[in-house]
Amino acid sequence: MTTDTQAPAADAEIGKARVRKEDARLVTGQTNWTDNLTQPGMLHMAFARSPFAHARITRVDLSAARSMPGVIAVYSGADFAAEQGSLPCAWPVTPDIVIPDHPPMATEEVRYVGEAVACVVARNRYEAADAAAAIDVDYEPLPAVLDIRTALDQGSPKVHEAGNKSYEFAMTSGDVDAAFAGAPVVLERNYRQQRLIPVAMEPRAVLCAPSGDEFTLWSATQIPHVLRTMLALVTGIPEHKLRVIAPDVGGGFGSKLQVTAEEVLALLAARKLRKPVKWTESRSEGNLTVHHGRDQWQRIRIAAERDGRIRGLAVDLLADMGAYLMLVTPGVPLLGAQLFNAIYKMDAYSFRCTGVFTTKMPTDAYRGAGRPEATFAIERIMDDLAAELGVDPLELRKRNWITHEEFPYTTISGMIYDSGNYEAATARALELFGYDELRREQEQRRASGDPVQLGIGISTYTEACGLAPSRALGEGNYAAGGWEHASVRMLATGKVEVVTGSSAHGQGHETAWSQIVADKLGVPFEDVRVLHGDTLVAPKGMDTYGSRSLAVGGIAVVGACGKVVEKARVIASALLEAPPEEIEFSGGTFQARGGGGPAKTIQEIAFEAFTGHNLPDGTEPSLDAEATFDPSNLSFPHGTHLCAIEVDTETGQVTIRSYVAVDDAGVVVNPLIVEGQVHGGIAQGIGQALFEEAVYDDDGNLLTTTMADYLLPSAADLPDFVTDYTQTPATSNPLGVKGIGEAGTIASTPAVVNSIVDALRPMGVRDVTMPCTPQRVWRAIQAARGNASGGTGDAGSGKGSDGDTRSGVTHTPPDGGSAASDEGGPR
Amino acid sequence: MTRITVKVDGVSYTDDVEPRLLLVHYLREAVGKTGTPIGCDTTNCGACTVHMDGKSVKSCSVLAVQADGSEITTIEGIGNGEWHPLQSAFRAEHALQCGYCTPGMIMAAADLLRENPDPTDHEVREGLEGNLCRCTGYQNIVRAVRRAAQETREGAAS
Questions:
Q1: What does the buried/exposed string (b/e) look like for B109-145 if buried means 16 or more CB atoms within 10 Å of the residue's CB?
Q2: How far is Cα A811 from Cα A799, in angstroms, rounded to an integer?
Q3: What is the pLDDT of residue B156?
Q4: Which residues contact A607 (CB under 8 A, 6 or more apart)?
Q5: How many C-beta atoms lie closer than 10 Å to residue A710's C-beta?
Q6: At what angle do helices A393-400 and A422-433 cross, to 10 degrees?
Q7: What is the DSSP secondary-structure string of B21-68?
Q8: DSSP code at position A403
Q9: Gyration radius from chain B CA atoms
């Protein structure tokens, strides 16, 4: 085997800030959103949904709806009962997990507001909505179960017959008792991960067209391949008679990593009516019934030496599953199970998580999925530990983090971090941020009693991307594999089609994959077309989530390119009359070693492979190959985020003054795309820190059903972010790449909250419950002032006094203070 | 049903519509202008922004009958067959990811630049407050709007 030389760095596509191929259609309105699509004879579907958090359905009267103009059919759950199956949970995380039956349309009992109880299929969307409003359902209300901290109490009403506990998962590494016993410093904190709504800008939509006993289903989904398999399993329709297409998809953030009731019901209605059926959700419907994210109560304890060295960490979570377990609901909190220890070395670690049912919308993956929760808790308590010890929070981190010489490093939780350089990323971030000057200004403001205080928040995160390898996923009872597939074919004219199992919905795969192929085949970037998101076009795939596309799907593309080159080399060898091992490939050209002789471009070889006229014996015509990549490990991006925030102590208003992010996602294929992912990720993490919360009232009604109630950050709410990156190549894949899609969200939430607490710490504030609205910040200050004489700083966010009038709901905030208090914690 | 006549991207259409029909549904389903998407139904997100007689409106909150006699421009017509400077700038600055908010963002930005041809970063951020994006964090949108503004001014000066 010869060693092929890479294209000179100056010409390399990998690393180039290519503007995106996708944009041409997106900026001109030539998009194929699912709701844009029509089919001949297409009908529209609308749902009647439960107004109760928990109730028994006693009567469903469809007669009025059936008689309305344009109505083709009206169905209740009973009409689907024989065929609708149960929506899947693909991750039974423990052997004794309780996975309740989850009919796509409720038949006997509803368990969250918004659960579908009936539907209309009509000529147009207005007639469908009118008739859905005329469906008459009688309910016998049952008690709602809303607080996971009391849902496991004796005598609590039950969400399901089997009770409110879904599972308990625990792991321990090292001697945790010994680490805590006799530790000079032990801190315990209770943090709240509020419930979030993903709010992809494109609402969900599905269109199903029958053709005989075959079906094509377009859906605004991240997972056309998984969805196809699951629809087959749920409905019994044979998998080979289902084609699923994810056309242009307007964002997902995990919310479209799901097998939804509406997808199943559109399919079943289309089968019943033998007509194409479309459903598009309204935003309110979406806020109610797109799975929610986060929602944990976290108790975290840390034991340390006086010099700050961490002895042990113990984590205990209560995680709100909502009413049912959806695709990966129970696994989401466990994606953080091995990451609370983060970048730090320690002697012992324990983790426990209890999944609890409530009468609320189920939770599931939302950008970061388990890792933001873990990162928040550890980075928050590291700041508190630094304050307790009187050392700079960055210095505390340096005393504990894994140094770059120590990689690969097996963490206390058993993960093997292949590569990283926390020192380099932090040094660059400090340089960009002006850390020392900001600390000086902070001192001045504190000394002068400035009503506007300055806070500096730090987050030195790592995370884990690209769930793999498949064998390990199997050991963890995850139902799917961690591989990805690609095929690369050269056309007769030398152009290249790349088929990928990744399913982009904004990430820019068409551009990044083209860059990879351009380098690997030595063809122009413009000559590559990337096809995806259709199970007919791209029959094998595991889709896009968990920052897996580049580090798994991109590597499958590399593998397929390698096979194409090897096949082309054999053909070139025959044409150039030199043995294959003498043929070198560089810059898209094959030539015998030493140069100077005749050469063949890969396009010429492609044409030879097309005609088949002069192929060596045993060589099949056509120049193409496919490859599947199953990584040996996850990838571990990391970075240092620094946030400077101004807090008006008189109003509680916070203003982000500067934000620096230095991320290390390994080798960067397209810096423009990476920067965009980091920007958007940071914005979403800031959204959790400052603005967003799904709020249910005491009866289990969702109050944040519109974008006027559920606040997304707007352009006016955010600063410019200063971003840069270091590049420490991953060793688990040949490109050296790591994921970047979720890193910003994982890193930024604790950076922002740490900055607020840092600003207010001299006033006695130790925590502010997210979202840190002006009112909550103001209340935390007031509570701290009220407690100033007590000196414990047990003011937190104004324990017991945090009547958040934005929602009208009284939250019990986490205890911000001493280790003695149990209130607000998981148990 | 009410008869309306609306000029959309330079073409005149006359249709009988239900009085309750939203302009955005009229544009998408009667005229076929699916380049204009719907994000929220409540005027918060701005994805459905179009120009009505030269000024930006959120077409999910305008009835089709209210647009009778008016001239509508959508993302599909803003460039008059070419790419509008904002369309080019959004691509050049990577100001979009999933692209769902992009049509509305561009239409709102065009209106902003009509009123203020040389906005500061802060003015762009304030001016686009009614258009939400979940992907980009807005920074590159701000860059794109200012780039388009600069290129438009330079184009006008030359």
A1: bbbbbeeeeebeeebbbebbebbbbbbbbbbbbbbbb
A2: 9
A3: 83
A4: A492, A493, A494
A5: 22
A6: 170
A7: -BHHHIIIIIS--TTS--S-SSSSS-TTEEEETTEEEEGGGSBGGGGT
A8: P
A9: 15
CA-nearest residue to A686 within chain B is B137
pLDDT at residue A812 is higher than 60: no
Place of tokens 């000529």: A123
Residue A708 is nearest to which of B18, B42, B98, comparing CB atoms? B42
pLDDT in tens, B136-154: 999 999 999 999 999 999 9
ipTM for the predicted complex:
0.98
| Strands of the B55-58 sheet, one edge to the other | B11-17, B2-8, B71-73, B49-52, B55-58
- For residues A442 and A433, give the distance between their C-alpha atoms in angstroms, rounded to a whole number: 14
Contact B37 A683 (CB under 8 A): no
Among residues A434, A488, A827, the alpha carbon closest in space to that of A626 is found at A488
Rounded Cα gap, residues A277 and A215, in angstroms: 11
Angle subtended at Cα B53 by Cα B51 and Cα B57, rounded to the nearest 5 degrees: 35
Distance of alpha carbon A615 from alpha carbon A634, whole angstroms = 41
Q: Which two tokens stand for residue A244?
A: 């699923």
Q: Cβ contact (<8 Å) for A201 and B138?
A: no
Partners of A186 in beta bridges: A303
Alpha carbon B86 to chain centroid, angstroms: 11
Q: Do B111 and B55 form a contact (C-beta atoms < 8 A)?
A: yes
What letter represents residue A496's amino acid? V
Residues whose CB is less than 8 angstroms from the CB of residue B48 and which lie 6 or more positions away in sequence, other chains included: B24, B36, B37, B38, B39, B58, B59, B60, B104
CA distances A608 to A162, A433, A521, A620, Å, are: 66, 57, 16, 11
Task: Convert the pLDDT of each residue in A464-519 to its tens digit.
Answer: 999 999 999 999 999 999 999 999 999 999 999 999 999 999 999 999 999 999 99
φ, ψ dihedrals at A269, nearest 5°: -65, -40
Strand ranges for A132-276 from DSSP E: 136-141, 165-173, 185-196, 205-211, 214-219, 242-245
d(CA A749, CA A692): 12
- Strand pairing report for A416-417 and A452-462: unpaired
The two tokens of residue B18 are 């239900």
Q: What is the SS3 string spanning A453-513?
A: EEEEEEEEEECCECCCCHHHHHHCCCCCCCCEEEEEEECCCCCEEEEECCCCCCCCHHHHH
What is the distance between the alpha carbons of residues A416 and A476, in angstroms, rounded to a whole number? 16
Question: Any residues with CB less than 8 A from the CB of B81 and at least 6 apart, and which?
Answer: none
β-sheet bridge partners, residue B152 = none
Closest among A438, A185, A167, A480 to A311, alpha carbons compared: A185
Hunting for tokens 């140069």 — which residue is that? A595
Name the token pair of A118: 């009936």
The whole-number pLDDT of residue A816 equals 37
**CA of B121: which chain A residue's CA is closest?**
A720
- What are the residues whose beta carbons fall under 8 Å from the beta carbon of A574, sequence distance 6 or more? A614, A615, A616, A619
What pLDDT, in 10s, does the model give residues A246-276?
A: 999 999 999 999 999 999 999 999 999 999 9
Taking each helix axis as running N to C, give the angle between helix B85-92 and helix B139-157, from 0 to 180 degrees, rounded to the nearest 10: 140
Residue of B nearest to A711 (CA): B44
Give chain B positions within 8 Å (CB) of A505.
Answer: 98
Supply the DSSP string of A698-753, one letter for each residue: TTS-BS--STTTS-PPPGGG--PEEEEEE----SSSTT-B---TTHHHHHHHHHHH
Q: How far is CA A560 from the centre of its chain?
A: 27
CA distance A276 to chain B (A): 17
Distance from CA of B77 to the nearest CA of A (A): 9
Q: Which of A24, A33, A720 is the closest to B37 by Cβ? A: A33
* Cβ contact, residue pair B35, A31, below 8 Å: yes
